[in-house]
């Protein structure tokens, strides 16, 4: 009897340990059981599910070339005796999505390294438990019809579906080949765009488009998320561009710029120079901070002023003992490593070290107080 009890307790302890260990999911980087469950031992009766963190799990958009050229949607072939499977030109739609919502328009929540198909989340049957989430057929039609209605004005079934018997396999293969070859023209990213603003105090706005992408890290969707195919294409010619108010025109820029009182930051009578951190702020980021993103120093969204230029503002925990001087590109020799920082860097000016406190005939960078190394 005691032996049976001991064996039972042994296996129970194994089960509990297995449940409480924080095992990283093999397909989700950094995701553990605690990411979704609030308790140590979730059960079927009490799963203690936390609010879904899927919005933080959205992956970076993949390039259209990484996906399939064509997908045959045949999930409903057993349910329908009217229509043949839909041949969907995936690559073409993926290329066009770059100017709107990206891959997330269809693949809403993708963990890193994976692309979640529609059928992984949307049920094939309409008799579903969660009525807040559309079934698979509803999800397909909601996505397709919204764009097609604005583009062509038609949402007839035959716009996407071919009736059974209307096309044989050869015709279906021909359609698939045609879809595979149909590639949306490459969108050439402009370097600079000049806007005429005759009604403003400055008659011109110089917008450095490539700089906003390469330097500030904006994606196409950051500015173009509300656009659709209709802006460039419309079969019905019914598209009408409404006159925007000043606030509407400034809406995108206002997330980073003060468009209410600081008009001269964008508007001028001549072409403005591109962004230069040293000239605008007096702080040269090219020496040691060129590879970090803006939000590392500028924590508050849309606010970029008021920061101290002193290193201690961000590196307050640096001391004489723990600071690794080699990150500056110079490993100090034995003599200089024993000195106080202020002996060479007067008035906390770390950009231009001074040698005259100790040497009459030496100066930096002509004379290096150690050995030059590659900056980390």
TL;DR?
Helices cover 25% and strands 6% of the residues. With 376 residues, the protein is mainly alpha-helical.
Architecture overview:
By secondary structure, the protein is mostly helical. It folds into four domains: 2-51, no CATH class; 64-181, Alpha-Beta Complex (Cytochrome C3); 193-234 and 248-286, no CATH class; 322-372, no CATH class. The chain has helices at 2-20, 33-36, 90-97, 118-121, 136-152, 169-181, 209-214, 220-224, 246-250, 277-281, 334-337, 341-344, and strands at 71-73, 86-88, 193-196, 204-207, 267-268, 330-332, 370-372. Strands 3-4-5 form a three-stranded antiparallel β-sheet, with no helix packed on it. Strand 3 (193-196) and strand 4 form a beta hairpin. It is elongated. Mean pLDDT is 76; it is low at 4-27.
Key structural traits:
376 residues, mainly alpha, Cytochrome C3, 4 domains, three-stranded antiparallel beta sheet, two-stranded antiparallel ribbon, elongated
CATH fold field value of the largest domain: Cytochrome C3
Mean pLDDT: 76
What is the spatial order of strands in the main beta sheet? 3-4-5
Tell me the distance between the termini: 66 Å
Proportion of residues in extended strands: 5-15%
| Biggest beta sheet summary | 3 strands, antiparallel
Helix coverage percent: 25-40%
Quick one: how many beta strands?
7
Structural class: mainly alpha
Q: What string gives the helices and strands in order?
A: HHEEHHHHEEHHHEHEHHE
Number of domains: 4
How are the elements arranged and paired?
Blueprint: H1 2-20, H2 33-36, E1 71-73, E2 86-88, H3 90-97, H4 118-121, H5 136-152, H6 169-181, E3 193-196, E4 204-207, H7 209-214, H8 220-224, H9 246-250, E5 267-268, H10 277-281, E6 330-332, H11 334-337, H12 341-344, E7 370-372
Antiparallel strand pairs: 1-2, 3-4, 4-5, 6-7
